[in-house]
Amino acid sequence: EALTMVCAQVMGNHVAITVGGSNGHFELNVFKPLIANALLHSLRLLGDASGSFEKKCVRGIEANKERISKLLNESLMLVTALNPKIGYDNAAAVAKKAHKEGLTLKEAALKLGVLTEEEFHQFVVPEKMIGPSDD
Questions:
Q1: C-alpha dist (Å) from residue 103 to 25, 63, 75, 90, 106
Q2: 65-128: which CATH topology?
Q3: Domain boundaries, the chain
Q4: Which of 8, 30, 78, 134 has an alpha carbon within 20 to 30 A of 72's alpha carbon?
């Protein structure tokens, strides 16, 4: 809630800065004090709020790597890696079966007979799908 209030204030300051910038009708914009004040206020708010949020909320948080790995490897979205290998229709059938029966993609692909276990592991490599690549 505190961060949301900070964001609301910063957005309001942004509007003030925009209005100040658009209403400066002469070469020397007489709204510069308003613009500077709003900008500096936003910078102070964001800096203070970020530091407080890190100290009181973020510090000490640790990722549950086992759960992340489990969710990643069981994600039905990984089926996109199969499209170029088995075609859209077969990939869609795998995803539908996995979803309807509560199976993993691998289990569904094996039951449908569209891939072997080795082929599945060759084609579905989440690590290659979650970041930039040279391909």
A1: 66, 25, 10, 16, 8
A2: Ribonucleotide Reductase Protein R1; domain 1 (1.10.40)
A3: 2-58, 65-128
A4: 134
